[in-house]
Specification:
This protein is of the alpha/beta class. It has 12 helices and 8 strands. α5 packs parallel to α6. The protein is globular and about 55 Å long. The model has no long low-confidence stretch (mean pLDDT 93).
Length: 283
Amino acid sequence: MTWADPRQLVERAQAGGYAVGAFNMHSDETAQALVRAAEKAESPVFLQIGRAIVPHMGVRAAAELTRRAAAESDAELVLHLDHGPYEEVLEAIQLGFGSIMYDGAHLPFEENIRTTRHVVQVAHSFGIPVEAELGKIPDADEEVDWQSYYTDVAEAERFVAETGIDWLAISVGIVHGVPLSTPQPLDIQRIKDIKAATGIPLVLHGASGVPDDEIRAAMGAGVAKFNADTDLRHAFRKGIEETWAQGDRQLEEALARGRELMIDATIAKLELYGCAGRSGAGA
């Protein structure tokens, strides 16, 4: 298989008024589910090495797992590092990742600019696009002062201008996980304002649990990439629990059912984002 050009996928999405789906793997079966969903939906997909799998097995082993799942596929796929600190970014570059997300959002603003700019210089020298984050994203149902979490429009404009990043992940009411209570509505006007100020494709992390109408509005406002994980993990878990609820079953049977439900859940996301049917000639 040949890995897709991540810049081209995001630029194509932005021009076409849809968004690309980006999802995390946690095991062989979950990686297989994402690849199979991309094939069945004829959709580009970012396969993300994220914050759960890296402590579990490391960047290299996670990349090998993902490459193994994608080896025979003709789908448009990107191997992407999600929420990487500097050391993992360097390792991902050395391992030939297609794109990386450097996460300096926890740092003071000036330091985030300085470290992100350096990451961009290194990654761009290898032809690798960089995603970075500005603003804070809370966990689901965490009580927060949203005004202190939102991405500031003026800061976003300066951050993009001074770092040279390719895509900006923003905080506009999203959370990590699926809230049990009524979710905070997305600040669609803020998305529009950030897009107008920066001019680059925007990314929303934590897209699980966001109402479909808000997802569509966010795309219309300038979001070209959605990261979602929790909804897909819940689908995989449901398949395992359904199988074991029937009594003693082989682990492989439960994993296969989990994979099946995760494929369906992923395809639903790709259809919602508008990227289903957009691979190759369907672009």
